[in-house]
Design brief:
132 residues; mainly alpha; AhpD-like
Length: 132
């Protein structure tokens, strides 16, 4: 979870869930990240793009989608790659799903750009140091 959501102030999707249903929060965390994301066969970066594409195809452009766009970028997907993947959604899930996903992704790009101008340089150096 740290590699995926540990940087850039990714929206905390599970935190508020813990206030209303703490056991469910644990179930989601344990199953999604302890079972599915931890499986062999796909690297984490690829799993994250699949997640972004699936959420976009379902029309989910809210906080969970945005958190996963942040996560994809934290794992090395570029803005251009994400835009191309989200445009691809239009063929199979329809133009409205692709439009909503692209507009939500745009908000993430702008947020990261804004944070990058103010504090991202220091944060990026710290992240790089930890991965070496």
């Amino acid at each position: 979870m740290k590699a995926l959501h540990g940087a850039w102030g990714v929206p905390n999707v599970l935190g508020p869930l813990g206030e209303v249903a703490p056991e469910f929060k644990e179930m989601v965390r344990d199953f999604a990240f302890g079972e599915i994301y931890a499986r062999p066969g796909l690297e984490l970066k690829t799993r994250q793009m699949v997640t972004v594409a699936a959420l976009a195809a379902m029309g989910n452009d809210g906080v969970e989608f945005k958190a996963h766009v942040h996560g994809a970028m934290n794992l090395g997907w570029t803005r251009e790659e994400l835009v191309e993947a989200l445009m691809q959604i239009a063929i199979y899930a329809g133009f409205p799903a692709a439009i909503h996903a692209l507009l939500a992704a745009k908000e993430v790009f702008e947020e990261r750009e804004s944070k990058g101008k103010h504090e991202g340089t220091k944060r990026r150096r710290t992240t790089k140091r930890k991965t070496r």
